[in-house]
Structures are given as structure tokens and as C-alpha cells.
Amino acid sequence: MGKGWNSAMYWRHLLVLSLAINIGLVAKVLLFQGAENEERLCAVEAGAEGAHFSKKAAHVNRGVGKGPSLVVAHGGRDRGRVVNLDHGDPTMYEMFWKRMDEETTIVIPGWQSVSYFSDPGNPCWFMEPEFAKQVVRIHRVVGNAVTENRYIVVGTGSTQLYQAALYALAPTGDDPNPMDVVSVAPFYSSYPLMTDFLKSGLYKWAGDAKLYDKEGPYIELVTSPNNPDGEPRTSVVNRSQGVLIHDFAYYWPQYAPITSAADHDLMLFTVSKSTGHAGIRIGWALVKDKEVAMKMTKFIELNTIGVSKDSQLRAAKILKATSDSCEGISNSKVENFFEFSFNQMTLRWMKLRAAVRKSGLFSLPDFSSEWCAYNQQAFKPQPAFAWLKCEGEIDDCEGFLKKQKILTRSGRHFGASPKYVRVSMLDRDPNFDLFVERLSTMSQIEGTTPVP
Ligand SMILES: Cc1ncc(COP(=O)(O)O)c(C=O)c1O
């Protein structure tokens, strides 16, 4: 027995040891992957709306920013969670679109969209006819813009169309001076960055339109309702050599009363903020002048040789589903999209105003009520962003809120005072609710005590 048994015992021990080592290794690999996935998830959750955002979020998520309040505490659920409302990522509409699965799903077979061309006879030759049809239809349904006798130009977001419009409106002659581009402060923080990014010889950022007193040609950007403060806007410079770009990203009935059908020379729209599909990257311009529409098309041709057909088809499907929901054509269980989004925004603004009142540390803009021709009622604007002011001695509102683990965008980026911040109202419910809850309890934490 002795020798045989010893040998059996020896092999059994070896087997147990080997099993233990393997289990240890497998556990290590799984743990490592878990940590890696968590980090990746943080990075994905972080991503949207430009350079301001991505660096800041990465910094905070890794806990390497200045000061103790930047370390993300993973324990204790929401207490230490960073609420990032710096960017205007419209994820709040996700819950509506989840209910519209059937109405919005498209299948694109491999043979489709192989050509560069969509509609060779159209000045915007890369625009899908179905997309153009749904653009005209949504404006007719909502009544927010005139589409008759207009050229439609599709773009990779209205961001690309903005640049195409600058190119098309700037004089092509031998004028050595770039054309000035102005907008009333506070203006959308990306305008100066997009205008000067390529140091164009055709145009340059010239700041606040209210302070603009130069003679000569200029471009004025009119954003209505305005980003960041939600105010309805009209042009202010009004000189003979000016041309206007109207940015109507937020002229939709969940944000502002539709007082009339906008009727201007060059108007920009986007699915990013209308239906909340920022990731599809589709915008459109309604342009009166054919030459301008053709120059914008040329810009996009030289920039990206057109606009993704797949994205245009998805945008068309979503715009169709939106119009159908408004006209009660789709599934009877489906709510009107603009009713849903209007009610959501109303609720959020009520919660925010209540929290601001309770804290006593902040203020918000007051709006006047106007009649909305779309939903046949008078209401006050309920913008996609809150233009929040830190009252009293708090001079750096962004820094102050950062200590409470709330990321916002300082007024400085919008040509305004750092006493203001822009806060996105379009995030998912849990983030928005946590923000409001933190804001409402701030007076009790004596202003500067950071959230642990
Ligand atoms: C006023 C305004 N214009 C344009 C855009 C960009 O829209 P898009 O996502 O279509 O490029 C934004 C996005 O935040 C915006 O606020």
C-alpha cells in the first residue's frame, strides 16, 4: 500500500495545487476585465458635445483634477456621483424612442447606398429624397418654418452646415479682410471655436453683436431660442451690409412657443435637439437663394463628399415617426412626441425652479408667456439649458458647483460672466433628479463644503 498510496497522494496534491493555481488565474483575469470594462463604460458615458466636455469628464472620472471633490467615490450609490450636465446630450428622449421601436427601426441591405449620388437633379445632389420629404412634412406639422420656395441642404449635423453657411456667405472677391462674424452674448460657446478653428481668410469671429460698430460686410448669427439662455432672439446689428444665419436648433414646441413660421434667408435645424437624435449627426438648412444653397453643397462636397445616406434614411424614418405621432397616424398607444417632450420639460423646469427657490443661492431667467400656434396654448419658454446664476459672493459658479460634483459650463465660454453657468436640462432622469436634489440642499451645506 505504502508506495502506491504515497504516489496516489502525491498526484492528488499536485492536481489540487494545479486547480487552485488555475482558479486563481481565471479569477484574476475576470477581475481585470471587470475593471477594464468599468473604465470603458465611464469613457462611453463621458462622450459628447465637444472638446470642453471630453477632457473635463476624463479628468474627473479618473479623480486627478484639482481639489478633493473631484475624486469619484464609487461607494454609497449616488452620494459621491459626479453629475455631468456640461454638455447638451439629449438622452432624456431615449425613453420615448424605446417605446417606438417598431415605428423607427430600419433595415439597410448591403447593396443599398453604394453610390455617392442620391438625387443628381437636386442642387444638393447627395440628399435622399425621402429625407427632404420628411423635412418639409415636419415643418408643415409643427408650423415652425416656411419651406415653400426654399432649397434644402442636408449636413452632418447643423455644425457642418454652419461652416458651409460661413463659406457660402463670405465674399469670394479679392477682399483681403476676412468677414466679421458676430452674435449677441451670451452666444453658443462653439461659434467662436468653429469660426476660427481653421484660421480662414474668408471670415473671422468678431464677438458680441451688441458691441459691433464697424462698417462693412458682416455675418450675424441669430440663435432663437438662444443657447445658453433660452431667450427668443432677433437680429440686432441691422446694417445694410449684413447677412444673417438663423440657428433654429431649439425652435421646437417642447422648448418654446411656436409664435409663427420662421421665414428667413438661411435657417438651420437639426435632429439633435428636435427629436433628440444627436448621434445620427443630421441637420438641414432651408435656404432661399439658389447660389447660396449651391455653395453650401460645394463646401460639403469638398469636406465629406456628401452626407451618410444611412444616417439620412434613419433621420427620415424618425422624422416620419414624429410627424405620424403628432397626426395620430401611428399606433394608438403612441403619444404625440411633442406632447411627451413638452410635459417632460415642464416638469423639469418646475422641479428646477423649486430647488433654486429652496437653496436661495441661485437665480434663473424669467420668461414671458406667449401663444403657441402648435399646441394652442400660451406658455413660457422651457429651454434645453438652464442659465443659472450664482448669487451673492460666489464669483466662479462653475467651480462652486464642481465642488458639489456637478459639472456645468462656465459663462466665460459664452462671452458672459463666470457668475453664470449653463446646465443641460436634457440628461436622463436619474442625473437630472440628482442635480435638482443636490441644488435644493445646498444652502444647508453652507455653500462651499464639497460633497464627499
Ligand atoms: C445653437 C446650436 N446650434 C447647433 C448645434 C449643433 O447641432 P448638431 O448636433 O446638429 O451639429 C447645437 C448643439 O448643441 C446648438 O446648441
Brief summary:
The protein is of the alpha/beta class and 452 residues long.
**What is the residue-averaged pLDDT?**
86
Number of self-contained structural domains:
2
Number of strands: 15
CATH third-level topology of the largest domain? Aspartate Aminotransferase, domain 2
Strand content: 5-15%
Helix run count: 13
End-to-end distance: 66 Å
Known CATH architecture of the largest domain: 3-Layer(aba) Sandwich
Report the helical percentage.
Answer: 25-40%
Low-confidence stretches: 1-5, 24-76
Which molecules are bound besides the chains? Answer: pyridoxal-5'-phosphate
Strand order across the largest sheet:
2-8-7-6-5-3-4
Query: How does the overall form come out from the CA principal axes?
Result: globular
Rg over CA atoms: 26 Å
Main sheet characteristics? 7 strands, mixed
Q: SS-based structural class?
A: alpha/beta
Order of helices and strands: HHEHHHEHEHEEEEHEHHHEEEEHEEEH
CATH homologous superfamily descriptor of the largest domain: Type I PLP-dependent aspartate aminotransferase-like (Major domain)
CATH class of the largest domain: Alpha Beta
Description:
Belongs to the alliinase family. GO terms for molecular function: carbon-sulfur lyase activity; transaminase activity. One of its GO terms (biological process) is amino acid metabolic process. InterPro entries: Alliinase_C, Alliinase_N_sf, Ethylene_sulfur-biosynth, PyrdxlP-dep_Trfase, PyrdxlP-dep_Trfase_major, PyrdxlP-dep_Trfase_small. Keywords: Aminotransferase, Pyridoxal phosphate, Transferase. With 452 residues, the protein is of the alpha/beta class. It has 2 domains: 83-97 and 335-441, Alpha-Beta Complex (Aspartate Aminotransferase, domain 1), CATH 3.90.1150; 105-327, Aspartate Aminotransferase, domain 2, CATH 3.40.640. 40% of the residues lie in helices and 14% in strands. The protein contains 13 helices and 15 strands. The protein has a 7-stranded mixed beta sheet. The chain has a 4-stranded antiparallel beta sheet with strand order 9-12-15-14, with helices on one face. Strands 1-13 form a two-stranded parallel ribbon. Helix 5 (129-142) runs parallel beside helix 10 (309-327), helix 6 crosses helix 9 (290-304) and helix 11 (337-359) runs parallel beside helix 13. The longest helix has 45 residues, at 2-46. The protein is globular. Residues 1-5 and 24-76 have low confidence and may be disordered. Pyridoxal-5'-phosphate (PLP) is lined by residues 88, 157-159, 188, 223, 227, 247, 249, 270, 272, 278, 283.
